[in-house]
From TrEMBL:
Coiled coil: none annotated. One of its GO terms (biological process) is methylation. It catalyses: 5-methyltetrahydropteroyltri-L-glutamate + L-homocysteine = tetrahydropteroyltri-L-glutamate + L-methionine. It holds the Pfam family Meth_synt_2. This is 5-methyltetrahydropteroyltriglutamate--homocysteine S-methyltransferase. Belongs to the vitamin-B12 independent methionine synthase family. Keywords: Amino-acid biosynthesis, Metal-binding, Methionine biosynthesis, Methyltransferase, Transferase, Zinc. Its cofactor is Zn(2+). Catalyzes the transfer of a methyl group from 5-methyltetrahydrofolate to homocysteine resulting in methionine formation. Pathway: Amino-acid biosynthesis; L-methionine biosynthesis via de novo pathway; L-methionine from L-homocysteine (MetE route): step 1/1. Residues 470-793 form the Cobalamin-independent methionine synthase MetE C-terminal/archaeal domain. Its EC number is 2.1.1.14.
Amino acid sequence: MNQVFSLHRLAPCSTSLRLLLQGPLSSSLFFSANKRFSFLRFSLRARAMASHIVGYPRMGPKRELKFALESFWDGKNNAGELQKVAADLRSSIWKQMADAGIKHIPSNTFSYYDQVLDTTAMLGAVPPRYGWNGGEIGFDVYFSMARGNASVPAMEMTKWFDTNYHYIVPELGPDVKFSYASHKAVDEFKEAKALGVDTVPVLIGPVSYLLLSKPVKGVEKSFSLLSLIKKILPIYKEVVTELKASGATWIQFDEPTLVMDLDSHQLQAFTHAYSELESTLAGLHVLIETYFADVPASAYKTLTSLKGVDGYGFDLVRGPQTLDLIKGGFPSGKYLFAGMVDGRNIWANDLASSLNTLHTLESIVGKDRIVVSTSCSLLHTAVDLVNETKLDKEIKSWLAFAAQKVVEVNALAKALSGHKDEASRKSSPRVTNEAVQKAAAALKGSDHRRPTDVSSRLVAQQKKLNLPILPTTTIGSFPQTLELRRTRREYKAKKISEEDYVKAIKEEINKVVKLQEELDIDVLVHGEPERNDMVEYFGEQLSGFAFTVNGWVQSYGSRCVKPPIIYGDVSRPKPMTVFWSSTAQSYTERPMKGMLTGPVTILNWSFVRNDQPRFETCYQIALAIKDEVEDLEKAGITVIQIDEAALREGLPLRKSEQAFYLNWAVHSFRITNTGIQDTTQIHTHMCYSNFNDIIHSIIDMDADVITIENSRSDEKLLSVFREGVKYGAGIGPGVYDIHSPRIPSSEEIADRINKMLAVLESDVLWVNPDCGLKTRKYAEVKPALSNMVVAAKLLRSQLASAK
């Protein structure tokens, strides 16, 4: 496990596969999944617009990479076995696109963990704590940066723009020594070429890489990450030179930060970087890809003026206003990569509407200069609809997963039109519920705030709960063992009775409750053994939702989520959590948290209907959660946590659109708990993101207690309080990172708590981990929580002595 392995030096696949790739198309691979494509009978030899895929899911249609990674981390398989799984997945993806007739097929979009971390490895930007001494970066260093190890913590992880994907944040400073330390991009290109597939190597662009990084601890505040551009460009030049020598004809630089609100200095960095790269890029076609939003006018001008660039990729799904900029002027002789197929949702493309847009673009840039593309990488959608054998046929006819979107791209490139299923979705009685529509519409006239201020509520709650100073709690979930997962799976498959299932879950809850009592945790959780996923569990009990069997999407590393599909109006037919929370409370005298997922998180972590505004769907979910909160209170649950882990990630990328989103998102949260008693304590939880810029909206949520990620981001959250923001509610900045197997000592945790006490009052501070414990093992959880409680008690003793 500690040996150094090259990440991509792999043997090419068999001759038979190479011949298959060069052979005739088997159309059933794509068309059998969705009758919607039955009209797509065309010859792949027909001349048409070029087609392009920005990127593709890497986990595999049945999460093959996830299981291979976790087996490798557990020491159950070796590096060669992991590499074999990865190579098979890559060759399958390239074959799929080649068979579908895609002209510009991406390579280097596969990753063992994260594409930004891959770039960090390519640049040799390894933080010193990982003990790397040069040479090709192997799995040991790579996974230590991603996950930490026994002696050092992982690098920070945060949201990738406004998606549910997380990336590993580079740590850069003026003294970083960059070197070409991972040949992954070149190795992957050669691997595809050996299979007979010419690909477009994809690199994260140099400017976006720096803008997505963070300064290493201890550097001067005046240090600018963009000052490192002159140090990283030589590495990019080496990579480009090797790709050219290997036969590449196109290269794609992803520069998604161009959709952000950038200042003139930041925009100038793009001009400088690509001017510096121009001579090295000579002889290559160069594509600059943007995605996730409109490109601002100033950025559009900078982008379309870059030297040595042949094509520009735009997200025309989430950035339709970019069309106006294109209409206002597009550089002659350049290629427009038109992102017409949505890479972030699972609804089938409205082919007629897309073709109308393409015809408009054709009149501006010329037919031979348009390349039909996805709006962004298909990483953010499920893999293949063909694996959904249990999905309702009507709903299935409305959908397209990544494999089907590849076909949609090529269908549009061939300028086809035909039957669409949009009309059936719009007219289906399953989509609309008039009572829900009226209830949601009525919400718009009220602010929905609890009548008593938070300070008064906290006093009333403390009288009832009688908690110590620095109360300890956890975020909700406890480890999901193989036995527990098997129990749920067997119950779902009707292999065990409901009676046996309830008995098994009650036993698990009791075990978790007793463990927390032994650890002397103050506010308990039931551990969520009955739940598969914090969104899917609720969606399965709400109307208007549909579910897949294999609709997995990567969140980070090997962690995948299976987002529900919200296809219609949402309501709650009956209580969802009351039985289990009440059962758990009956096992203890200590406060037991009722655990709910908030409306904004359910919305942002689902594939959401696109036939009405997102806020209307969110209000509907809020009303359903409100019913559940009130039923929990009636059942005697005095602490209720409503997780809004994904509130920040839904924030629009452009500042001009953020206030509207935050207004309805925060309003939705308040709807869930308005009208309950002052003595009922409402918690919320938020994880991995940058919260400092929305701290006033978080305060406006008016929760009694918020637990929030803090440890992996170097206590970045605390800086907002150092700068004078007053927070009067309870707050629990996470004291240790649960996304790493590393067990922190009680001294380390006590040190973190002391840092919090320097900026927060002791009477509002809570002590808790960063996030839920679902993905960890009990061997890690027990000592970590024990150390957390020891640290809290130590600080209580010190505070008492100081008084």
